[in-house]
Amino acid sequence: MTKAIIGTGSIGSRLAANLVAGGAGVLLASNNLADAATLADTLGDHATAVTVDQAVDAADVLVLAVWLDTAKQLLAQYRDRLPGKILVDPSNPIAPDGNGGFVKTIGAGESSGQILAALVPAGARLVKAFGTLSAETLTSASRRAPEPAVGFYAADDDAASDAVAALITAAGFDPVKAGGIDQSIRLEVFGDLHEFGALGRAVNRAEALAAL
Ligand SMILES: NC(=O)c1ccc[n+]([C@@H]2O[C@H](COP(=O)([O-])OP(=O)(O)OC[C@H]3O[C@@H](n4cnc5c(N)ncnc54)[C@H](OP(=O)(O)O)[C@@H]3O)[C@@H](O)[C@H]2O)c1
């Protein structure tokens, strides 16, 4: 399966590095090709810079490593070309609160995973993943030994679940499914399965299963 990451900021660049470290090939796209090319140059032969347009065309799995509003915009812009594809959503719907903290930008009972899933056209599937850990932990906990760190995910579709579980493994984490996309809120900031929630850190499989 061809994998692409759209967005080469904190999460996109670190996820790309994790995948390349695991020997996986990845297409990289961002707001401008130069940023994607700069990152691809640092990662070597397994990373290839492309335009967002090319990424949408070529990839079977598209990680939307962008903020929620941008993800909404991309889903609308490329709607006709998304059937058949798996979209991966790491977004946390937050913004600075002006006091050094963060505030949720959507309703208390809402999740960005469910909001985005509702915008996905028929034939495309959305999976929530890669948002439960901070960018720093996404790097430091990848391929952790002896006990791998868990990467939680949530999905409604079995085939998409399997594909994203394989992607989480390739990124150096132990995939644990929290349930359907309606469980996304638990994976997002302020949710109990997020690193900054009750867990407080990247957990191992036994800890993750106990928390579910
Ligand atoms: N940072 C974290 O610790 C963390 C942890 C978990 C989840 N997340 C989630 O991951 C997502 C990305 O966060 P981040 O921290 O990586 O943000 P970021 O550092 O701001 O990176 C966002 C990336 O998206 C690109 N972008 C913006 N508009 C675009 C467009 N129309 N088409 C293609 N690319 C576009 C940006 O390019 P420009 O720089 O040119 O604008 C940038 O490369 C967010 O939803 C966030 O909630 C973040």
Give your account of this protein's structure.
With 212 residues, the chain is an alpha/beta fold. It has one domain: 3-Layer(aba) Sandwich (Rossmann fold). The protein is 36% helix and 19% strand. It is built from 9 helices and 10 strands. It has helices at residues 10-21, 33-43, 52-58, 68-77, 112-117, 135-140, 158-170, 184-187, 205-211; strands spanning 3-6, 26-29, 47-49, 61-64, 86-89, 94-96, 102-104, 125-129, 150-154, 174-179. An 8-stranded mixed sheet has the order 3-2-1-4-5-8-9-10, sandwiched between helices. Helix 1 links the parallel strand 1 and strand 2. It is globular. The model has no long low-confidence stretch (mean pLDDT 97). The protein binds NADP nicotinamide-adenine-dinucleotide phosphate. The site of NADP nicotinamide-adenine-dinucleotide phosphate has 22 residues, from helix 1 and helix 4.
TL;DR?
By secondary structure, this protein is an alpha/beta fold. It has helices at 10-21, 33-43, 52-58, 68-77, 112-117, 135-140, 158-170, 184-187, 205-211; strands at 3-6, 26-29, 47-49, 61-64, 86-89, 94-96, 102-104, 125-129, 150-154, 174-179. The longest helix has 13 residues, at 158-170.
